[in-house]
Amino acid sequence: MSSRSVFAGVSAVAALSVVLTACGGGGATTSADAGEPTAGGTLRYGLSGAPTCSDPAQSGTNQTIYVVRQVVDSLTDQDPETGEITPWLAESWEVAPDASSFTFKLKDGVTFSDGTPVDAEAVKANFDSIVNILTTAKSPLGGSYLSGYQGTTVVDPLTAQVDFDGPNAQFLQATSTAQLGLQALSTVAKPAEERCDGSNVGSGPFTYADYQQDKSVTLAKRTGYDWGSDVFGHEGEAYLDTIEFTVVPESGVRTGSLSSNQLDAISDALPQDAPQIEATGGQILTTSNPGTPFGFQPNVTRGVLQDPEVRKALVPAINRQELIDTILGPDFKVATSTLASKTPGYTELADVTYDPEKAKSILDAAGWVPGADGIREKDGQKLSFKVMFSAVFAGNQAILELTQQQLRDVGVDLQLELVSNSEATARQGTKDYDSTYYNSTRADGDILRTSFAVDGRNLNARGPIPDLDASLDEELATTDTAARNEIIATAQQQVLDNGLWIPTIELSQAIGAGPNVQDLKFEASARLQFFDTWLSGQ
Known about the structure:
Layout: H1 3-17, E1 42-47, H2 62-68, E2 76-78, E3 85-87, E4 90-95, E5 101-106, H3 120-138, H4 140-145, E6 149-156, E7 159-164, H5 171-174, H6 185-188, E8 206-212, E9 216-221, E10 242-247, H7 251-259, E11 265-266, H8 274-279, E12 283-288, E13 292-298, H9 308-317, H10 320-328, E14 333-334, H11 356-365, E15 369-370, E16 376-378, E17 381-382, E18 384-389, H12 396-408, E19 413-418, H13 421-430, E20 435-440, H14 447-452, H15 466-476, H16 481-497, E21 502-503, E22 505-506, E23 508-513, E24 517-518, E25 521-522, E26 528-529, E27 534-535
Parallel strand pairs: 1-10, 1-11, 18-19, 18-20
Antiparallel strand pairs: 2-3, 4-5, 5-7, 6-7, 8-9, 9-10, 11-23, 12-23, 13-20, 13-21, 14-22, 15-16, 16-17, 24-27, 25-26
Helix pairs in contact: 1-10, 1-12, 9-11, 15-16
């Protein structure tokens, strides 16, 4: 794509992005005059992409987790305001001094929707299945949370002891995630593929009523649910009778459907959607995602990105503020580290700044000389690489098109490879890319280990880096919060210094909600929680 055509596209967005200044989102949709919550009704929700699988253990994308989070409960929850780990299915727990063993005391009387008990046997079966049946190939996040898993001991029917082969300080927070949500024995005994067909049985406030891959999902209220998280806003059953999720990839169609009352809420409300949504009494609800911000993860064994000086030069070559101002609007933030700013343990890194002259100087010193077309060359090789990405976030393509122009200004040729979610996952598994562009959401700094450890996902395809490896091991062994945050701060810098992540922007969830939607909330990892949501004006 030419320079002119890219800027023609992004400039149109720029003219509209400023509208978000007046409609800034909050933590929940609530109208002061809506009155007391009332039960009943169907909330119609427009997803911007199809859920990849109905199994929480195999979930990864936001659109998937919006759905699966409602079906399963977790051992713990995390307070979105304080980050504190709070009771849910487990009423209490004990952590061994070296964080290698965790003992959970479960609430009595909790059942899965098939009537079977949520007990210590279920905890054991769930964790065993992630490690032994799904493996990290199918459950990369859940598998990473259970790294070093030795097994679960059923101490008594309501007491489960989870043991690891070494310290695992991140595990308690991991038990609050959807990926480690508990499912019935009938579900966890199935092969991975069969766990994606919508037959999953959880203990959550909603159950699967209908699941049509790539089209729609219907959830129904769980009658008799009475064991919600301490973070929830009320006790007992959910207010909504049903939630109908429909896949609507086109932003304009989603917005039009919301404005015309064909949908009640939608994902990925873009800046230009705000006036139309607000004109009919709706609002945009936003929150920043913790975890790793959007960025490039280079395959350090392939092409020009094998050169660490090239990777180093890419960081100051990117004008992150221009990406925000031109594409996204003020409810988004520039990335300032290899962790997003909402992540516990985040620290700002001075090197993540825009300085194109610095980028040129680094490349000059490394022997990359501008060619006749402006693209640098060295030993007959063009300074060119591809980035693989999928449309999991509506702004990805426009962001990368503008980044492409910014990199060209310093002599780097970036080529865009838009692929499906399934192809991106498959190619990440085989390391078949020059670089891959994505983000990962988790409210714990251990996401660095998940993403960058040599024995983790390691999408860099890197070998040992002793200092970084030591930091990632040390944070896993440290239970003191302040000490652990210092280690995580060091690891953030080490990831950047080794050119393992080129940050761009922090992801924010931007949800369009109609005037009748009340108390639609984000949980600690910036995913939607529908338990407290209700519909006014029925």
